[in-house]
Amino acid sequence: MLNRVPLNAALLSTVGTPKQTELLESSPRSRVWRVWLADRRLVIVKQIIDGGDTGADANTRFAREVAGLRLAGRASGPAVAPAVLATDLSSRVMVLEHLDDLGKTDDWMPGHAEALARLHALTGPTDAGALPVWAGPTATDAESFLTLARALDVPVPSTVPNELAGLLRRLDPTPHHALLHGDPCPGNDLRTADGVRFVDFERASLGNGLVELAYFRIGFPTCWCAMSVTAAPLAEVENIYRATWRGLTGKDVPGDLADACAGWLIQGDALVERAHRGTVDQLARVPAEDFEWGYISARERLVHRLGVVADMTRDHDHLHAVGRLSSALAGRLLERWPKLRPLPTHDTRPWY
Length: 352
Known about the structure:
By secondary structure, the chain is α+β, with helices and mostly antiparallel strands. The chain has helices spanning about 10-15, 55-70, 110-120, 140-150, 160-170, 210-215, 215-220, 230-250, 255-265, 280-285, 300-310, 320-335; strands at about 20-25, 30-35, 40-50, 85-90, 95, 180, 190, 195-200, 205, 290-295, 295. The protein has 12 helices and 11 strands. A 5-stranded antiparallel β-sheet has the order 1-2-3-5-4. A two-stranded antiparallel ribbon has the order 6-9. A two-stranded antiparallel sheet has the order 7-8.
């Protein structure tokens, strides 16, 4: 039954008759097929399934992905996402343009950064309500971060709670309307002859693009294959992103990248895969256990993020004490668990 492509009469009349199908690897929340049609065209068929959700939640994810893809379809010049060819809400099926992926390249990040900026620049204030607003860290996340420090016997500077409260205010997504992918990770970026295109928009939202530019520094926080990007390539991709955004909007990127990175640091849910987010306080688990996601452990991810925030906030007007706390926390983790490994470098990214 899994190999049977769920195309009803309405979809068949729109896209044509399948002649050959191939079930592709996908998340537990979807099924994806590569489909050869009778007229020799090749398309992708994706069905959103419950995956442990209620049907209503699956319907919401379907609507969210379709909305994100259609907004991404506004791109002039090279596309940044596959085109939506047909949809059916009743079966939660979308038929998408098939993309020819060129595969592995050593220099993958510049194209990724440029496409990300072009994606983010496609929407503005008039699109408010087209997608959910980005869900960033909360006061509960900030308190969990402080509790982690206390559990590891790291003194918390007196000004840190106020700095974290200010951080949450600055990360409010309400004034921002960039089209965020939601999971711009290796595997969701395909290299085509016309440039990078992103797929899997199930977590698309509107917010500040810096929260996704921060992926390069903070280690790709929603990805199983967390990575570290070194100084020269990091400067290059951030310059490409900012120049692309400025060229498209006529303005500098709003906000503070240090804020975006600190926001990812204090979110415990960014230590686990999506299926486990929102279930328990993940930061509270760190002192007692080192749980893995992919081939990288939670403590290893956390040490990297702490180091990034410490480095970025040494002279920061609003996060100086948070930076000092981050440095002390990283030192304590390495002192207690000296075998923790640094994150793999960006040139080790997996290819699919």
